[in-house]
């Protein structure tokens, strides 16, 4: 039988805060609060009362990692992002893909000009759907690298 959730928080709260501080520094209190909310929501679904301390540590660690990922995506800058813009004319598209091999050009034309899904591309190129997806992906990657 599971003990009351508040008992776990009182027993392990201080050490969880220290753990959260090690993982997320100044954001430790927010991380711990989010972790305890997650744990509280999941608590009634637990089947065993064994290793509850380890489970709380795992929830706190996962929440700290999620917080770190979220913060990393929220990069604050003073200037608006620079966005590369290309005209959408077919001639410009042909100029962009001119440096690619014929297979890559065909795959990109079928995907972005003819607007075919990967099944249609595979049928037109005479390959598997996986191969069609790979050809489009490789061609886009090559373009990104060449224009970076």
Q: Mind explaining what this structure looks like?
A:
This protein has about 150 residues and is an all-alpha fold. It folds into two domains: about 5-75, Orthogonal Bundle (Rna Polymerase Sigma Factor, Chain: A), CATH 1.10.1740; about 90-145, Arc Repressor Mutant, subunit A. It has helices at about 5-25, 30-40, 50-75, 90-95, 100-115, 120-125, 130-145. α5 (about 100-115) runs antiparallel to α6 and α6 crosses α7 (about 130-145). It starts with a helix and ends with a helix. The model has no long low-confidence stretch (mean pLDDT about 85).
Q: What are the secondary-structure elements, in order, as H or E?
A: HHHHHHH
Number of strands: 0
Q: Classify the secondary structure makeup into a structural class.
A: mainly alpha
CATH H-level homologous superfamily name of the largest domain: RNA polymerase sigma factor, region 2, helix turn helix motif
Helix and strand arrangement:
Blueprint: H1 5-24, H2 28-42, H3 52-73, H4 90-97, H5 102-113, H6 118-125, H7 129-147
Helix pairs in contact: 1-2, 1-3, 2-3, 5-6, 5-7, 6-7
Task: Jot down its keywords.
single chain, 148 residues, mainly alpha, Rna Polymerase Sigma Factor, Chain: A, Arc Repressor Mutant, subunit A, 2 domains, 7 helices, 0% strand, elongated
Summarize the structure.
The protein folds into two domains: 5-73, RNA polymerase sigma factor, region 2, helix turn helix motif (Rna Polymerase Sigma Factor, Chain: A, Orthogonal Bundle), CATH 1.10.1740; 90-147, Arc Repressor Mutant, subunit A (Orthogonal Bundle), CATH 1.10.10.10. Helices cover 70% and strands 0% of the residues. It contains seven helices and no strands.
């Amino acid at each position: 039988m599971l003990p009351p959730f508040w008992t776990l928080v009182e027993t392990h709260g201080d050490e969880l805060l220290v753990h959260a501080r090690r993982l997320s520094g100044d954001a430790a209190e927010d991380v711990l609060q989010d972790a305890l909310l997650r744990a509280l929501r999941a608590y009634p679904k637990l089947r065993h009362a064994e290793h509850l301390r380890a489970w709380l540590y795992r929830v706190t660690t996962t929440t700290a990692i999620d917080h770190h990922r979220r913060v990393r995506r929220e990069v604050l800058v003073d200037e608006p992002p620079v966005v590369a813009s290309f005209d959408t004319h077919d001639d410009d598209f042909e100029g962009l893909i001119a440096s690619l091999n014929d297979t890559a050009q065909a795959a990109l034309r079928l995907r972005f000009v003819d607007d075919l899904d990967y099944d249609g591309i595979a049928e037109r190129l005479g390959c598997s759907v996986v191969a069609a997806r790979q050809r489009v992906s490789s061609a886009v990657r090559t373009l990104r690298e060449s224009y970076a």
